[in-house]
Structures are given as structure tokens and as C-alpha cells.
Amino acid sequence: MRYEGNVYRPPSEARSYILQCTIGCSHNKCTFCGMYKDKKYRVRSLDEIKADIRMAKLYYGDLYKVFLADGDALAMDSGDLLQILKELCRQFPSLSHVGIYAGPGSILKKTDEELRALRAAGLTIAYLGVETGDERLLKEINKGVTGQEMVEAGRKVMRSGIKLSVTVLLGLAGKGERSQEHARETARICSEINPDFVAALTLMLVPGTVLHRRMMRGEFELPEPFEILQELKVLIENLEVDNCEFRSNHASNYLPIKGTLRRDREKIVALLDGVLRSQDNRFLRPDYLRGL
């Protein structure tokens, strides 16, 4: 398969064929993210993408899972995306899952009709980086949208019938009281969206990013591991979602957790309470096993 630069995908797309439709991220301005800083955003030609699909057919035979990369491939023209989905379905009769990264700005630019057409053509799940619900923090990290715009983006995806997985970022507010506010406001915004999945990651500072430079100047301090878990506990306690699968199984996290909210909330909170009371590092994933 042909790929340009490093390629990223969500943990749940581990068994997916990754089809690189765009190079880089259309926004690429978030202060914490170093994923696509070595790339200039562009959309690959349909001829190149369809050639890659044919190569995948020769190599894999039939497939049932595909992930459309790079960051925010939803920024592509909807007509082009529909052609890609049509070709994928033609080449892979068993295809039942197509995922995509979707930035909030790109979602808001799509009409409801466009999103419904993409769902009908085979797009099954979108991954939206909410990161935080704290209005001031959203501006500080240069996410490009307000909290209300983030809610509307998430709801637009949900209305289309495309499943929605939102990602939140523990530790983003740094040490101190803002950590708790970040957790509460993030729970609030996720509750307003009411997505199918919520995934928590833990901030890891990447050299070359704005936030890493702030840390080096002493303007930002990462919370300690148990402070991160306290933030996670506040998030879980305040999430008011229905039949939403919660995961913190990303490699960046100190404590892998999974469950369905609201059903498993008490059990998850009890687990976090026990680990927090113990202050025992043996319960935590060691730093040498953590990664992005």
C-alpha cells in the first residue's frame, strides 16, 4: 500500500485497512497536536485513491473494515467521498464498516443531506475530537470552534445516522483548579451531544508543539498521574449519556477502563476511588508503556 508520512488511526480501527484520502489535517492548528506538522494538507486525486483500493483488493481479497485517513478526511468534497465509498463497496462485497476522522469545522460545512447521503453510501462511524468543553480552553488550544459549535457538529453527525465517537483529552487544563472545571465542562458538552462512544486520552506533550514550548517556558505543567485519574473520575460522574460506550484504552492512559454509561458508572467510579485511595503506582500503566 502507498502511504505518505506517518499514518494515524483510532484504537478501534486496529483491524481496518487504512486508505489515505487526504494528506495531513485541514485544520492542523491545535496547540497540543504534533500528528501532522510535517505535512502540508492536500487532497489526493480520485485516480490515486481508486488505484490504492484496487491494490488493496489484490493484496487482501475481500475486506469488512476500512478507515479513511488522514486527519479530517471528511473535509473532502462530498461528491468525491461518495465515489470513494462506491468503489470500496464495489471492490469489497463484505464491507460493513467505514470510519473517518471528522473535524468540527468540516462537519459544520456539510449539509444534513450530504451527511445522510454519505451514511447511505456506507460511511458508518465518524471520530470527532471534542478535547474539552471549557470555552476558554477551546480557544486556548486553537480548536477553531466554540463549545456550542462543537455540540452542533456532534448532533449533525448523530442526526445523519452515522455513529459518533468523541475523543476527550485528560490533562489539557494543566495542574490546578481548572482541571476539575475542564472535566465538568467536557462532561456537559458530551452529554449535550449524547454520542455513541466517548474515548478519553491523556495529554502527552510532543516536542515542537505550542503546548510543549509553553511547558518548557514554565507556563504549563502536566498534572500528576493520580490528578489525571481524579479528573477522569469527575468526567465519569458528570456524564449524562444513554447507552454510550466509554473507553480509556488508548496507550496514553494510565488506567484502561471500559463500560457502558450510565449502566456501569457506579462500578467505574468505585474502581477509580479504590485506585485513588491507594495512591499505588502498581495500578498504573508505566510511562515506558505509554504512547500516542
Q: Could you name the key traits of this structure?
A:
292 residues; alpha/beta; TIM Barrel; eight-stranded mixed β-sheet; two-stranded antiparallel sheet; 10 helices; 40% helix
Can you characterise this structure?
The protein has 292 residues and is of the alpha/beta class. The chain has a single domain (11-289), classed as Alpha-Beta Barrel (TIM Barrel), CATH 3.20.20.70. It is 40% helix and 16% strand. The chain contains 10 helices and 10 strands. The strands form 2 sheets. An 8-stranded mixed β-sheet has the order 1-4-5-6-7-8-9-10.
The CATH class is Alpha Beta
Helix content: 25-40%
Range of strand content: 15-25%
CATH superfamily: Aldolase class I
CATH domain topology: TIM Barrel
- Distance, first to last CA: 23 Å
Q: How many separate helices?
A: 10
CATH hierarchy: architecture: Alpha-Beta Barrel
Structural class: alpha/beta
Global morphology: globular
Radius of gyration: 19 Å
How is the quaternary structure best described? single chain
Q: Into how many domains do the coordinates divide?
A: 1
Write the layout of secondary structure elements.
Blueprint: E1 17-20, E2 22-23, E3 42-43, H1 46-60, E4 65-69, H2 78-91, E5 97-101, H3 104-109, H4 112-121, E6 125-131, H5 135-140, H6 147-160, E7 163-170, H7 178-193, E8 197-202, H8 210-216, H9 225-238, E9 244-247, E10 258-261, H10 265-278
Parallel strand pairs: 1-4, 4-5, 5-6, 6-7, 7-8, 8-9
Antiparallel strand pairs: 2-3, 9-10
Helix pairs in contact: 1-2, 2-4, 4-6, 6-7, 7-9, 9-10
